[in-house]
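WARN  no MSA supplied for this record, continuing single-sequence
INFO  ligand: fructose -6-phosphate
INFO  echoing inputs
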Amino acid sequence: MEVIICKNKDEASTKACEIMVGIVKENPKAVLGLATGSTPVQLYAKMIEDHKENGTSYKDIQTYNLDEYFGLDQSHPQSYHYFMCHHLFNGLDINMDNVHVPKGKGNVEEEAQKYNEMLAQNPLDIQLLGIGSNGHIGFNEPGTAFDSVTHVVDLKQSTIEDNARLFFDGKIDDVPRQAVSMGIANIMQAKKVLLLAFGEGKAEAVKGMVEGPKTVDLPASALQDHPDCVLIIDEDAAKLLSK
Ligand code: F6R
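INFO  complex generated
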């Protein structure tokens, strides 16, 4: 794991943007694994800025998102599909036929299976990740097997609380209790992993991921085995690291 500690979220998002744009420029048909949540919002704004200023094109880029809430339609303002359109896709020249977000409604088990097949046929050039305060990646909560693939998950209470704080106008009862998420094995198959973490609330999870034992109790610790994993974190998220 390469750990890059930045002064703040802005500096970290600029570095992350350089990596993402670099991949798109190198291979205009690249396959990007994307994340939602508060962490990548600034990065996405910078990617849009770069597209507008420098003309980086996404017209042949394919994207696969990590996860989606169970039971929410794509058009629901709290769905991750909606989030991605709002924060990234609407600002790029991306072809929406090349955009993939797990389906949270309908026959989700069958759709999850199809998602795995699509991922197998379209290996991810990079997977962007945030990290949960409990160490989850995607919505792979503590206890998820490292060989898991896209599946329906029960969200932990701490995740429901974290997400109610940042989204859903603080209404905890509105946060779905389940989600569909790529598994840890899908994430590990990406050629490169780029994980961002900001703020003191992530410091313990970051320490466990980098310095702790590899354990299903901290899903992000699986990344210790990834051959090309870069962490870009701010000073607050890095504050418990010993080295
Ligand atoms: C999002 C995702 C989650 C988030 C994590 C951190 O698609 O899969 O793992 O990355 O919950 O969320 P934020 O960024 O809101 O702190």
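Residues 9-26 form the longest helix (18 residues).
INFO  checksum written, moving to next record
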